[in-house]
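Supplementary Text 2. Reproducibility record for the structural model of the 119-residue chain.

All settings were left at their defaults, and a single model was retained for analysis rather than an ensemble. We include the record here because the model underlies the residue-level annotations in Supplementary Table 4.
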Amino acid sequence: MKRIAAYLKLVFLVTVVLVVALVAFNNRKNVVNVWFFKSYEQINVLWLMLVTSVISIVTWWLLTATFGVWRDLRELAAEAERKQKDKQHEDLARKLAETEKRIDGQREEAKVRQSEDTG
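Retained model, structure tokens:
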């Protein structure tokens, strides 16, 4: 099964390379007039396709990098918020422990006083 998948991938890759070569060969002498904030006349179609594809790839890379940074910043903010909540929980737990200790001490004092009063 792996051998069939490998050969299918190879056939697909060779097909793509042949299609690209065929398109390049058939468009080698074609020229086009383009307006991109200025008129460009008699531009070779292959160069136009190459520049367009490179700009598309760079733009896609920049967009994914930007969204990645945005996601990282959100994660950092969430982590900072979690740390702040953890610190608040620890402070509350410490205060609760101190209060319990104080109440236990008062209870023991009350028991001692009660046993002294009855004894």
